[in-house]
Design goal:
Length: 461
Amino acid sequence: MTLNYQFPKGFWWGSAASATQTEGSNQGDKGKNIWDHWFEIEPNRFFEGVGPDLTSDFYNRYKEDISNMKAIGHNSFRMSISWARLIPGGIGEVNPKAVTFYNNVIDELIANDIEPFVNLFHFDMPLELQEVGGWENRAVVNAYVDYAKVAFDLFGDRVKKWFTFNEPIVPVEGGYLYDFHYPNLVDAKKAIQVAYHTMIASAKAVKVYHAQYDGKIGIVLNLTPSYPRSQNPADLKASHICDLFFNRSFLDPAVKGEYPEDLIELLEEHGHLPKTEAGDQALLKENTIDLLGVNYYQPRRVKAKENLPNPYSPFMPDWFFDNYEMPGRKMNPYRGWEIYEKGIYDIMINLKENYGNIESFISENGMGVQNEERFLKNGRIEDDYRIDFIKGHLKWLHKSIEQGCNVKGYHLWTFMDNWSWMNAYKNRYGFFSVNLKTQERTAKKSAQWFAEVSRQNGFND
Ligand code: BGP
């Protein structure tokens, strides 16, 4: 039988998750990271006062979870290592319990024919390193590279796909511009330094990996196409600048090994270039990634500024654009994000045309919905909206593959409902629901649908 949407042989079907959002923090001698600390000092900032201490208890339940992954057709799964768990404090002694835990998880995945994709940093800076400035401090870059080496040495014999960072721009936006991650600063100068150091850390980890290990290493970026309101040059300029700030600031150095000239010029003009060191340029140029993970949730729509920014206000990316609410846009009202399936295609075509058609995959895409119990029927959440969401995106992904884009897989965010940072358990994303009182997992309708898609390597519609 031929399907309407048949994917290439060996397509990666699976999902992604992160350590802090699933494992549970208060066990296994884990050190503290910024989330543990922020929750301790400001629990009120987290939805319903729920913190990262237990989350979905993957630390104890990974066997059951991995067997559920297998049951719904996963052939790959992206997890992250918690730096503060592996090396409490961020520097020095390795935690033997963490080594056992990650070995067990990796071995269990492999025993179930699920390839582990491992990410080294998912928003979760060890607290002690944040206290010395986090990514503002170049010494933290070296600590990160040491940590990366420890992880490659411990797990690299079995893990052949590594990622240096997940969405490195998010800690920049959250921690240094828009106040949704610790340390909650609003300081563009620091933000730019943090972004720069993250990219230097990534290139250094790539260098070490390529010199001594034998798999692929990449980065996961949230690429958010910037669509202008109109073709008016002022709107086009606004969207171009947005693209420089929010996509190309990481995409270009990661894939091309250099920053866009016009981004450098713009920062220079405003006195906001980061501090660099001799040798950085060559480091970036010589250590580009092998594989790109693309997280896609929503487009960005922008227009020229309605009012000129106050020149005495502190420099912000928002000096150059206003957000544009396009009439008639389709929304996920719970998360407040627009749903625009074609965005996934536009990203892939851009990678093909402007980034050497680098090997890539969708490393996150998904739909967070509040109060999903409303859709319970005979004990199961009937999440047809999620099936439609995934289908809509897969159709456009399929089209991009037909046009020669080098896309190797699709991972949903996420496998089971998990702790979404400040939103805690407000919006649920999983194929499996998690009952927070009992920690019981139950497959949603989408899980069954996905199992079939994976089995057939495609679907009909
Ligand atoms: C991505 C992150 C994930 C995850 C997801 C959903 O940006 O990589 O960690 O949380 O978004 O977003 P949220 O949890 O904010 O609803």
